[in-house]
Every structure is written in C-alpha cells, then in structure tokens.
Design a protein that fits this description.
Bound molecules: 2-acetamido-2-deoxy-beta-D-glucopyranose
Number of strands: 13
Number of helices: 10
CATH superfamily: Glycosidases
CATH topology: TIM Barrel
CATH class: Alpha Beta
Low-confidence stretches: 1-25
Mean pLDDT: 91
Shape: globular
Protein name: Glucan endo-1,3-beta-glucosidase 8
Length: about 350
C-alpha cells in the first residue's frame, strides 16, 4: 500500500469509543481479514486500535507490506502474513528469493519480540478453476521454499506455512459430506500438499461461503445458509446437517481422511456475508449470518466431525472498492465495519450477545 493513499482518518478514529470492549479479553480465536484493494485504506495504527476495541485477536493480511505489519508489533494481535499469487513462480524458482522474503518480511518484524506471526499464507485461492492451472505446479514448491527459509532462520517451530484455498478444491458431487474428495484435476497435488502440511504440523486454510452457494443456486434453501436451525436437516451417514457451513467443512474433513491425514488441523481463512450488490447481500442478512456464526463459535460446538474450538478469520474488516466485480457487484461490500470504524450492523464478536 502506498503511504500517500492513506487518508488521515487517524484524528477522528482515535476518539472512537467502542463501548464495553476489553482488549485483554480477545474473543477466543476470532480473527478478521484485512484486504488492501482499496483506494484509501485506514492507517494501520487505526486498524490495530479498531481490532483491540472490538476484541478481535487475529488478523489475516493478503501481502506483507512492511508499514502495515510493523503496526502490529507489541499489540498482542496475531498476524497471518500473505504472499500474493503473482509471487508464487518467483518463490518456487528461487530459494534465494524465499530466503530474502523471510528476512525482509518475517525476521525484520520478529526481532525484540515484535510482531506475533504464526502463519504465512502462501498464495490466495491459487487453485481456482478460473486461473486455468497457472499456479498448479508453483504453489507447493513455493510453500516448501518459504518453510525451509523459515526453518533456517530459526522461526520454524513457531511459524508455519499454509495456503488459503477456496472450498472449490473439494466437492461431494451430488452426495453428502461423506462423498467428499479433492477435485479431480488437482487431486494428486492436493494430496501431496496436505500430507506435507501434516508433516510440518501446519494447518489447512479454507474459505467457506454459504452466501455464494445461495448466490449461485436459485434453488438453494435460504435457511441452510444460516445457523438458526430453520433448515430441513440433511442426513449423511450417522450425522445430520442443518447448515451449509458445517456440511461444507465436514466435506473437507472427509477429503482429508481419504488423503490419509484425518487429523490435519483446519482453519477457516474466510467466512462472511456481504451487505450490498445482490438481493441477498444486505445488512439484515449479514447480521443474521454473523449473529448465528459468532454464537456458534462461542459455544465451541464445531461441526459433527470436528467438534470443539474452531479458528476463524471473518471476511472482512472493511469494504474494498477496488476489488474485481467479475464474480458479482457484492465483491466490494464484504466489510463488517464502515470507514468511520462503526460496524454496519450490530455485531458482538464475543458471540454472547
Ligand atoms: C516482502 O513482502 C512485500 C509485500 O508483500 C513484497 O513486495 C516484497 O517483495 C517482499 N520482499 C522480498 C524480499 O521478497
Ligand atoms: C483462462 O482461460 C479463459 C478461456 O480461455 C480466459 O478467458 C482467461 O483469461 C484465462 N484466465 C487466466 C487467469 O489465464
């Protein structure tokens, strides 16, 4: 992000009083994505305060901009760094480049107990079918180079490489979650990757969007996109699913089982609901989604196959007015917060409200 593009929102933002939030008591496991495809982004220091005020303890970035990352030093907020897809080829071809990347974007920030980095997310949904296989053979070598460079720089025990995948890397055909498996055209690569992630003790990062299911299928049962139990349950083996999120995540669990890594940790890299640009994209339904989702997360109920605590990054912190609208006009309206730091709709990140 060019510094010049940043508006001086700081003056007004710093006086924001976001009531009854206690930054020492971060909502357990709740993270948020902060994208940079905007003409005028908020100052990083303002975002740090915004997250603290709302009890959000983790942030996921899409690059590793120095000025942005630096702002999280000593904040207590855990940062997931990102590496864009257009860097994959370079980093897969050259271990020297991977070493430089780690030096400049990790080591520089972790000195003196600076920024709390736990994951480096390599690529962003690199296996989308719309990329025509561009990243198929560069992703895993790039991930391995970065991890090796992290290991050699002494970060390997704490910082792991992962990669955010769209849920379209697996499917279950017309069956339930138990029919799940990785997509045929990339199955062998996915199997290699998840086994490697498992071997280094990392996690599978997946983006799951009930909104998109609704958007793409006019016949999709609306209630199944939410968490208030109104949907007709779908039975699969011994389990019953009353929401799409659980069914989707368990399809991944089955895919991992079939790949031989049944216990690989899963992190939800993106989940959220847009507020404009489509008939189902509005504050009312976004509120319904987040309300149900955050309550579910607070109970640590998990899914039928992965009960327990779930690590999740909401999508997204703010609207991004320069995102491609090829997928739909809603793409620029994923923000939970407006640029004045106020949420677009009432939301309680602790899930207790
Ligand atoms: C560090 O990350 C930034 C931002 O993502 C990138 O532009 C830069 O090329 C990276 N540094 C190295 C040495 O690769
Ligand atoms: C993928 O292929 C389609 C059809 O050939 C083309 O229109 C599109 O630009 C390609 N996308 C990329 C990212 O190469």
């Amino acid at each position: 992000m060019a510094r010049a593009k940043v508006l001086l929102w700081a003056c007004c933002m710093l006086f924001l009083a976001t009531a009854n939030a206690d930054s020492s008591n971060f909502a357990k496991g709740i993270g948020v994505n902060w994208g940079s495809q905007v003409s005028q982004n908020l100052l990083p220091s303002v975002v740090v305060q915004l997250l603290k005020d709302n009890g959000i303890g983790k942030v996921k970035l899409f690059d590793s901009d120095d000025w942005t990352v630096k702002a999280f030093a000593g904040s207590g907020i855990e940062v997931m760094l990102g590496i864009p897809n257009n860097e994959l080829k370079r980093l897969s071809d050259s271990y020297d480049d991977a070493q430089d990347w780690v030096k400049e974007n990790v080591t520089a920030h972790t000195r003196d107990g600076g920024v709390d980095i736990k994951y480096v997310a390599v690529g962003n949904e690199p296996f989308l079918t719309s990329y025509n296989g561009t990243n198929t053979h560069t992703l895993l070598p790039a991930m391995k180079n970065i991890q090796k460079a992290l290991d050699e720089a002494g970060h390997g025990d704490k910082i792991k490489v992962t990669t955010p995948q769209n849920a379209d890397v697996y499917d279950s055909g017309t069956g339930g979650p138990s029919q799940g498996n990785f997509r045929k055209d990339i199955r062998n690569i996915m199997i290699d990757m998840v086994r490697w992630l498992d071997s280094i003790n990392s996690a599978f990062l997946v983006n799951i969007y009930p909104f998109l299911s609704l958007y793409q299928n006019s016949g999709f049962p609306v209630d199944f996109a939410f968490f208030d139990g109104g949907a007709k349950p779908v039975k699969d083996k011994d389990h019953s699913y009353d929401n799409m999120f659980d069914a989707n995540l368990d399809t991944l669990v089955w895919s991992l089982k079939k790949a031989g890594v049944p216990d690989l940790k899963i992190i939800v890299g993106e989940a959220g609901w847009p507020t404009d640009g489509n008939i189902n994209a509005n504050n009312k339904l976004a509120r319904r989604f987040y309300n149900g989702f955050l309550k579910k997360l607070a109970t640590d109920k998990g899914t039928p196959l992965r009960p327990g605590h779930m690590e999740v990054y909401l999508f997204s912190l703010l609207d991004e007015n320069m995102k491609s609208i090829a997928p739909g006009a809603f793409e620029r309206h994923w923000g939970i917060f407006r640029y004045d730091g106020k949420p677009k709709f009432p939301v309680d990140f602790s899930g207790k409200g």
